[in-house]
Amino acid sequence: MTTPLPPLDVWYCCDQTLCNFNCPYCAAGLVRSAHKGKMWAGNESAALYKKVIEWIAAQSGFEKGVRLQTFGEPFLCDAFLEGAAWLSHRANIRFVELVTNGSRLLQEYGPFAERAEADRITLWITYHATECDAETILKGALFAQSLGALVIINLLLFPQTLQAVLVMRDRCLEEGLKVHVDLGYLQQNIPIVHERPDIVSRLYQWPDVLAMHLTAAITPFGQACHAGQAFIRILENGYVAPCGPLGQGAGHPVRFGHVLDPDFHLAESLYKTPKACTHRAACRCKEEFLNFAVLQKKYVRQRSMGLVEPRDPGPATNDTDAIVGLGAAGLKLKKALIHHHRLTPPGSGQ
Ligand code: SF4
Ligand code: SF4
User: Fold this and answer.
1) Across the strands, what pairs with 180?
2) Do 59 and 266 meet the contact criterion of CB atoms below 8 Å apart?
């Protein structure tokens, strides 16, 4: 009898590039403008996407949670949705998570849910306050939730959109939608940390996750990390890596293999234990730094690559020790956090 492999989280970002929004902070802005108006970045992109989806399905022995991301808006792209729906029916799939701007759900989610295993679908809906009204997003989110999706509304904290985000947060809570509040990046900066650390410390759900987020945004070097052991990143070119920062690194990228290589066997390549991170620049994506061993001991990602829940559902702890990891960019925030948690008893619901 073969020993079952531990569960695997898979983050795949394909190069579907068309989007109906034009957010000023879009991290995929350069890629999208290079392929303006095109559904996919390259002529072979859609075919590679299909191969990758099939490769993920073929990895047997793992329980797999899969986040499918694009450089654009997936609910504009039928070929993308067809692949996601197909994957959701395959064996050993815990969830298929789609990252969307939420603007097309009223039109597109019904037909998609009919094709998919609807109760394995997670929707990570990021609210872009400059591009779309809140009520459209809410209606689409509630509609998808009514058809079985687990829905998370992701709110990005930027100084300019703070009021809109706060209003949206209240509306989501009124409507019974799960909310996730995150730091908005503007190129290499996180402006809200410098301008409104008080708001960050109040709205970011877990102080120790925040501390590690800010640590990773400076450098994760030396941190024990489960990337490559319980998590893989599939790059848009089909290479499989422990994570994006290592897999895309200049010079000597760390890659396990390519999905089109018939001799590549993932299970034999994965690390057996967490490894100390060797990346000296920032690790900015939540999907990736949430693999820090220190966080994985305490938190679990059940149905989403971005949302952590405590393994022990007891009262929230005031984990000020964890914020020792804060670097220079987080010093103001650290003070605000300590101050806030002196004033706020654990479990007060903030
Ligand atoms: S919705 Fe997403 S992909 Fe589209 S412009 Fe905004 S940030 Fe970029
Ligand atoms: S901390 Fe980030 S860069 Fe380092 S191994 Fe983990 S995911 Fe990769």
Assistant:
1) 154
2) yes
Helix (H, G, I), strand (E, B) or coil at 96: strand
Three-class SS state of 222: coil
Does the Cβ of 207 fall within 6 Å of ligand 2?
Answer: no
With a CB cutoff of 8 Å and minimum separation 6, the contacts of 105 are: 75, 123, 125, 140, 141, 143, 144
Among 86-95, 99-108, 304-313, the minimum mean pLDDT is found in: 304-313
Q: Look at residue 3 in the predicted model and tell me its pLDDT.
A: 61
Output the pLDDT for position 35: 86
* Residues 7 and 230 sit within 8 Å (Cβ to Cβ): yes
Is residue 121 lining ligand 2, measured as CB closer than 6 Å? no
Atom of ligand 1 at shortest range from CA of 29:
8
8-194+227-281 maps to CATH 3.40.1280.10: no
Protein residue with its CA nearest to atom 8 in ligand 2: 243
For helices 78-88 and 105-115, angle between their N-to-C axes, nearest 10 degrees: 40
Q: Does the beta carbon of 22 lie inside 6 Å of ligand 1?
A: yes
Instruction: Find the ligand nearest to 285 CA.
Output: 2
Report how far residue 247's alpha carbon sits from residue 28's, in angstroms, rounded to the nearest whole number. Answer: 18
pTM for the full predicted model = 0.91
Q: What is the reported pLDDT for 320?
A: 52
Mean pLDDT of 135-140: 97
